[in-house]
């Protein structure tokens, strides 16, 4: 019974792409800069898999006898956002980047406010944690939701759940998703609920993403259409708008995501288990918290042996990322970077060096060949190399 356990370490980039300057990201290197910021950075299990042996990783000492296969992937699609990265991992090429905004047009905002029956605040590009501090008091006084965007193609709606309860917040997000089409189409509408704890505004785990549907068939569709299972953990189902997903499980944190991944691995199914661990990106990368990001990687590294021990004989474990989010870089947005790939399993040749691959989609092509399902539109399998 063949299965692939695919875990996205959200935003753990490993060095600027050749075109990074076009995105304002020259010199970005999420992993190396985290290692620089943490003199006692310890991730022995990732190192044992081969992380320090990957081209371009200079601050992590390589293991002379890695137990996994390793390499780095370039992003062929245009963009550096979550959807573009995940869709390419799943075999879809994005030629035209999703549209981004500094602010949404006044005509659209007027129509949106009429549709939801209330005025809004904000409507500018901002850090989510910063804008709820800046506009939270007015929101809590007036009941007006906070609208903001970023370098990602997103329309984000933040609200204190004591002011706008979750069902209402989700509803106004659904209204926005239906209206954000044509010239104002964005990749995702995101509900960003928060609460006040000990006098501080804290975002909750009830975030919900409303994405556009994939532009074509992905490896998720191929696996599901073949009669096998696609088990989606974390925000995976949201990113693919449910397309190709058999089972979806919500998570509240990285460690909750690991727990639920391991629980799923202990069940009997054939196919693909696809997990996203979002805290690296949302809690640390965007907040430019290098120490917090490094600690989160260390926490995952401690749990990695549990994941490996839960593997069945024909399982292949794949670890990768979807873009960078260098906490030392200026601003607070994603960075255009190569991403790592680490593979482990009884069927994986230890020490196999995949070098630099031309597309994230090589992951989907390899999964397709291993599970004997239809290949997606792009990507070249490296199964024979491992």
Write the layout of secondary structure elements.
Layout lengths: L2 E7 L20 H8 L6 H6 L19 E5 L8 H8 L16 H11 L4 E5 L2 H15 L3 E4 L4 E7 L5 H14 L8 E10 L2 E4 L4 E4 L7 H7 L3 E5 L2 H4 L7 E3 L4 H12 L5 E7 L1 H7 L4 H20 L5 E6 L18 E6 L8 E5 L4 H10 L15
Parallel strand pairs: 1-11, 1-12, 2-14, 3-4, 5-6, 9-10, 9-11
Antiparallel strand pairs: 2-13, 4-5, 6-7, 6-8, 12-13
Helix pairs in contact: 1-11, 9-11, 10-11
Labels describing this entry:
14 strands; 386 residues; Alkaline Phosphatase, subunit A; alpha/beta; 6-stranded mixed β-sheet; 2 domains; 32% helix; Alpha-Beta Plaits
Question: What does this entry look like structurally?
Answer:
The strands form two sheets. This protein has an eight-stranded mixed sheet, sandwiched between helices. Strands 3, 4, 5, 6, 7 and 8 form a six-stranded mixed sheet that branches. It is of the alpha/beta class. The chain has helices at residues 30-37, 44-49, 82-89, 106-116, 128-142, 166-179, 219-225, 236-239, 254-265, 279-285, 290-309, 362-371, and strands at 3-9, 69-73, 121-125, 146-149, 154-160, 188-197, 200-203, 208-211, 229-233, 247-249, 271-277, 315-320, 339-344, 353-357. The model has no long low-confidence stretch (mean pLDDT 96). The chain starts with a strand and ends in a 15-residue tail after the last helix. Helix 1 crosses helix 11.
């Amino acid at each position: 019974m063949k299965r692939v356990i695919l875990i996205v370490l959200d935003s753990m980039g490993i060095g600027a792409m050749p075109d990074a300057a076009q995105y304002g990201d020259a010199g970005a290197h999420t992993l190396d800069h985290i290692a620089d910021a943490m003199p006692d950075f310890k991730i022995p299990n990732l190192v044992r898999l081969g992380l320090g042996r990957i081209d371009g990783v200079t601050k992590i000492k390589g293991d002379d006898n890695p137990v996994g296969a390793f390499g780095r992937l370039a992003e062929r699609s245009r963009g550096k956002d979550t959807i573009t990265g995940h869709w390419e991992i799943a075999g879809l090429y994005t030629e035209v980047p999703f549209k981004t905004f500094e602010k949404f047009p006044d005509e659209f905002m007027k129509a949106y406010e009429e549709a939801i029956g209330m005025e809004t605040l904000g409507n500018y590009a901002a850090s989510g944690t910063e804008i709820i501090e800046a506009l939270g008091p007015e929101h809590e006084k007036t009941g007006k939701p906070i609208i903001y965007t970023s370098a990602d193609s997103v329309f984000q709606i933040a609200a204190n759940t004591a002011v706008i309860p979750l069902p209402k917040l989700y509803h106004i997000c659904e209204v926005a998703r239906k209206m954000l089409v044509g010239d104002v189409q964005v990749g995702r509408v995101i509900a960003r609920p928060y609460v006040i704890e000990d006098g501080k505004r804290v975002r909750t785990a009830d975030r919900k993403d409303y994405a556009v549907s994939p532009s074509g068939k992905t490896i998720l569709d191929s696996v599901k259409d073949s009669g096998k299972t696609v088990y989606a953990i974390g925000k995976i189902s949201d990113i693919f708008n449910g397309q190709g997903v058999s089972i979806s499980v919500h998570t509240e944190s990285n460690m909750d995501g690991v727990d639920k991944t391991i629980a799923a691995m202990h069940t009997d199914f054939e196919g693909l288990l696809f997990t996203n661990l979002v805290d690296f990106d949302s809690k640390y990368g965007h907040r430019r918290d290098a120490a917090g990001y490094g600690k989160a990687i260390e926490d995952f590294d401690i749990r990695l042996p549990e994941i490996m021990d839960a593997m069945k004989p024909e399982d292949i474990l794949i670890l990768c990322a979807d873009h960078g989010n260098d906490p030392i870089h200026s601003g607070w947005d994603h960075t255009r970077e190569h991403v790592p790939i680490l593979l482990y399993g009884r069927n994986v040749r230890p020490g196999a060096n995949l070098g630099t691959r031309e597309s994230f989609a090589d992951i989907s092509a390899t999964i397709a060949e291993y599970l004997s399902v239809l290949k997606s539109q792009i990507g070249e399998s490296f199964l024979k190399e491992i």
